[in-house]
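step: validate -> pass
step: tokenize input -> pass
step: predict -> running
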Amino acid sequence: MGAGQSMDDAPGSEEQAVQRALFVLIARSQSGDLNALDRLLRLIQEPLYRHVLAIVREPDIAKDALQDSLFTISRKLKTLRDPQWFRAWCYRIATRSAIRTSRSEKRWDEALREDDLAGMVATEAEERFEPELVAALPSLIDSLSPASQIVLRMHYLDGLTHLEIAEALELAVGTVKSRLAYGLARLRLEFAQRESRALRQPPS
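step: predict -> pass
step: emit ->
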């Protein structure tokens, strides 16, 4: 650390500060502070809604699944022993609620449990995600299988780590990495095909 550089200026210190604030909020909520609990639920409400909507596909059903998830989170929060697993724990609750509520419950349950991709070798290349592909992800992702869709959304749109996704979906970390690698390969192919079609179109 250079002269005059404080600890707060160190790389990652902002992220650490956010994490510490979250841990404090969790602790206060667990101790019975209703204002802290309300802030905590508001903090996770939007990402959890996107997550359950991606599973159930219908806004009204997604809202019901979200409310069920938030109620379960608030009721069981005191049982969470390690706050670093808060996001994964919330996503696990939301995933179970969404699958239970979904009209395609059997399809999703089978899709998330299948291990057809577990034998694939997942390389570190999946971390080098092209900016153009990031921007196109929401519109391209529906072309993927449900198993790949859900892990791509959680990792690249919601920012969960491989381990958090594994905990949330109750999968092996290797399976999560395989589905990410497979999904990215399919996305790159779909993106290239889309670009090729656009180039072939005559100018207006």
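step: describe -> The chain has nine helices and no strands.
step: cleanup -> pass
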